[in-house]
């Protein structure tokens, strides 16, 4: 039948036939489904529900385009086979994403100021000279006058008080885990022990019209289907996001374990890039991390998350 022939050619060209639409399935761009006799093609990654049912749900046109209208007709006679087309050349591989930058070292504590020297005590006043004895009359020698008494010594000046010592700079405490040998420290800002090493995961979408969908990781698979799994208890400490436009507003949402609840988010308003450094969101070992782009027609969005192992 012509309908089956069209579907087969669509599959041969790279589209993915999924059969009848299923309200419990998730679909990605270029998936084909059948519903109520019509064939539809997916144009936005999503998980199915009643509002998105192709041709029926109130929001169906946001996620689907009509591909073939009407039920299948009777089979026509077979046409002669066409000449096989030549194979297209393979597309070039996309470039690898750049590595995230290392976190900056903490600043050293400042040295305490030296206390001021105490002032010198004032010199005591000199004692007054004794009066000279009177000269004897000529002839026999007069009696020698008595010597004047010595003046008293002045008292010593009081010693100046010593200046107080300056406070010492704080030194962060570094520890080594006895089981794994990993190095960690106490993060006073977040109030917990965190590893020195940084765990990074990134997701992106290589398209200029990304609208309200999960970004993709390795193998170009949406993170709601194959998200990054944390190997330890960890804390999200930083988020960075970027796109190819500085005239768009969108949010990077962090979700986990196929839930639509938002654990953390960062919003970019008319910028090429945005980042945060003061996040403090705890996750557990085994949590699957998903990254969602909330926005309309975003150009080539990319989001990176930075975790530290929690001890």
Q: Tell me the series of helices and strands, N- to C-terminal.
A: HEEEEEHEEEEEEEEEEEEE
Strand content: 25-35%
Q: Write down the Rg.
A: 42 Å
Report the principal-axis shape: elongated
Total number of beta strands: 18
Assign a percent range to the helix content.
under 10%
CATH superfamily of the domain at 195-310: Galactose-binding domain-like
> What's the CATH first level of the domain at 195-310?
Mainly Beta
- Number of helical stretches of at least 4 residues: 2
Explain the overall architecture:
This protein is mainly β and 311 residues long. Among the domains are: 67 residues, Carbohydrate-binding module superfamily 5/12 (Seminal Fluid Protein  PDC-109 (Domain B), Ribbon); 116 residues, Jelly Rolls. Helices cover 5% and strands 31% of the residues. The chain has 2 helices and 18 strands. Strands 7, 8, 9, 12, 15, 16 and 18 form a 7-stranded antiparallel sheet that branches. Strands 10, 11, 13, 14 and 17 form a 5-stranded antiparallel sheet that branches. A hairpin with a 2-residue loop joins strand 3 and strand 4. About 14% of the residues have low confidence.
Which properties best describe this structure?
5-stranded antiparallel sheet, Jelly Rolls, single chain, 311 residues, elongated, 18 strands, 31% strand, 2 helices, mainly beta, Seminal Fluid Protein  PDC-109 (Domain B)
């Amino acid at each position: 039948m012509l309908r089956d022939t069209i579907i087969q050619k669509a599959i041969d060209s790279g589209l993915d036939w999924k059969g009848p639409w299923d309200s419990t399935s998730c679909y990605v761009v270029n998936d084909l489904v059948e519903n109520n006799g019509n064939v539809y093609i997916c144009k936005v990654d999503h998980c199915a529900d009643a509002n998105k049912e192709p041709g029926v749900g109130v929001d169906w046109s946001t996620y689907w385009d009509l591909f073939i209208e009407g039920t299948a007709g009777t089979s026509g006679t077979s046409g002669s086979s066409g000449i096989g087309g030549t194979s297209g050349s393979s597309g070039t591989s996309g470039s690898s994403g750049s590595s995230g930058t290392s976190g900056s070292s903490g600043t050293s504590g400042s040295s305490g100021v030296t206390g001021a020297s105490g002032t010198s005590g004032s010199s005591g006043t000199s004692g007054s000279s004794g009066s000279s004895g009177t000269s004897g009359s000529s002839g026999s020698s007069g009696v020698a006058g008595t010597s004047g008494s010595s003046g008293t010594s002045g008292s010593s000046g009081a010693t100046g008080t010593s200046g107080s010592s300056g406070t010492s700079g704080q030194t962060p405490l570094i520890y080594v885990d006895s089981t794994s040998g990993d190095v960690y420290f106490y993060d006073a800002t977040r109030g917990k022990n965190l590893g020195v090493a940084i765990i990074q995961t990134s997701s992106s979408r290589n398209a200029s019209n990304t609208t309200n969908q999960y970004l993709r990781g390795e193998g170009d698979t949406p993170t709601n289907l194959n998200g990054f799994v944390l190997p330890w208890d960890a804390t999200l400490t930083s988020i960075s996001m970027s796109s190819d436009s500085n005239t768009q507003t969108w949010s990077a949402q962090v979700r986990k374990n196929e839930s639509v609840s938002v654990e953390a988010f960062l919003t970019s308003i008319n910028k090429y890039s945005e980042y945060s450094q003061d996040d403090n969101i705890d996750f557990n070992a085994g949590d699957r991390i998903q990254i969602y782009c909330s926005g309309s027609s975003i150009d080539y969005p990319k989001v990176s998350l930075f975790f530290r192992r929690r001890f």
